Every structure is written in structure tokens, then in C-alpha cells.
Amino acid sequence: MSVDWLELEKVATNWVYEAGHKIKKTLAGPIDIESKSNPDDLVTEVDRAIEAFFYEKIQEAFPEHYFLGEEGISDEEPSLDGTVWIIDPIDGTMNFIHQKQNFAISVAIYHNKVGMIGLIYDVMRDELFHAHRGKGAFLNGAELPPVKERPLHESVIGLNARWVVEETNPYRNPLKALVRDVRSIRSYGSAALEMAYVASDRLDGYLSVQLSPWDYAAGMIILNEVGCVASNFQGDPLSLTDSGTLFASKPHLHKEIISIYIGEEY
Ligand code: IPD
Ligand code: CA
Ligand code: CA
Ligand code: CA
């Protein structure tokens, strides 16, 4: 069955705005918080409710589509053949809880493993980054230009500062060297937004030692449309099923940072 991508983009965008409105409303009251794999790995009732909102909408409108979300609302193993929605209902849950800002909804639609539509919505700033494969990337409807390169020593890189003090992190030394050599480092606490910031030239690159497909699925599509590259630390393609390292940046910087700092297998 052929897919009407423009219609799908419109529907997904409306759902993202509706979900953003729901999240905003929850900020007025108390929110139930639990931890998952460790005391700092947090999830709230809002993360779960927003994932369920998308799951139900998709099931109703497109029952043949698959669904992959961080909070595991769908009980089936999604297939990557056909159309699959990869969703992080709140990327930056820690920010959502502690700051009530600097978090995003991340929605990606892939078809036969090819990224077609990516949406990253900063709910509190009302900034929607979106991309449609082959048609460009946009911020609130204004097309993002192809990115401009800067030399490494003038680059500002997104990185969770904890990675460079983590004794057990195998990339600690290469990341320390990188932090020393670039112009500066920023840590925003939302991988999706940090990827969108690379695409919109607010950052030159973003690195993470551990991310999952729902963190980067939409970001990859947006980055691709402005000529940026997203891969693992060795430069290999990112997986849509497994977690791992992520390095997103402008293309020349990507080659340079992989060859000088992080490309070696640890
Ligand atoms: C997290 C954020 C954070 C990144 C973590 C992610 P979550 O996602 O993107 O910036 O450093 O690795 O897990 O749990 O808030 O959706
Ligand atoms: Ca999480
Ligand atoms: Ca996430
Ligand atoms: Ca999340």
C-alpha cells in the first residue's frame, strides 16, 4: 500500500502539538516520578501517558504501522520492514522534572529502515524542528540552510560533562582531549534537542557515549536534510534496534573528530 507522506507529516505534526499542550497542562499539578534502571534514570506518569497517547492515535489511524517507544507501551517487537514510528514522548525527563523546560517530544517515521519524517518539538519554547526526506529541514516552518563548517578550535560541542569524569568510561581520555581542543562545551540534557541544535547551527557537534534509537531517530532525519552526519563513534551507521555511542556533527568536523579523538575501538 502506498503511503501519503505529506498527509502523514500533517497528522504527526498535529499530534505533536496536541501532546505538547497535554504536557504543558501537567506542569501545574504534582507529577508522579519513579526511577527505572538506577536512581537517576527517571520516568513520570506524563512520559507514559504521552507515549500511550501516540500509540493509541497511531493504532486507530494506521493499524498496519509499527511502534517503538522508550517506555515500552507497545508490547509487540516492532518490525523495521514497513512503516514504523519511533517515539520518545519526553526527551529530557530530568529537565522536565527539575527545570520544567528544556525537554522535547521526538517523533520519527521510518519506512523500510529509511527515515522519512522527523519531528522534534521543544514544548516550552514552542520550537518545532521538522524534516521530510528530500524536502528539507525546518524550524517553525522556516527552512534551515545547509550548515556552515567551523574549524575544530572554533567549534562548540554538546556533551554530557559527566562522561569525562566517569572513571569507567572507555572514552574518557579521548573526550577530555576533545574538550580541551574545542572552543567550548554545552550540556543541554536532551539528546533530541542537541541534535536539532547541530542541524540549526546552534552547536557544531554532539556526542554521547550511550543513546537508544528513540533518542536519535528523529534527529538523524533532520540532520541528514542539512548535510550533517550522525553515526556511532567509529563512523558506522546507527542502529534502529540497539543502543550505543552517537556522534552527530557537520561533515568535515565529523571526519576530523573521529580520526583524531574517538574513532578507535575500546
Ligand atoms: C536522555 C536525554 C539525555 C541523555 C540521556 C538520555 P530521556 O533521554 O536525551 O540528554 O544524556 O542519555 O537517555 O531519558 O530523558 O528520554
Ligand atoms: Ca528515559
Ligand atoms: Ca531520550
Ligand atoms: Ca524519554
From TrEMBL:
InterPro entries: Inositol_monoP_metal-BS (IPR020583), Inositol_monophosphatase-like (IPR000760). The keyword Metal-binding applies. It comes from the Bacteria. The keyword Magnesium applies. Keywords: Hydrolase, Magnesium, Metal-binding. This is Inositol monophosphatase family protein. It comes from Alkalihalophilus lindianensis.
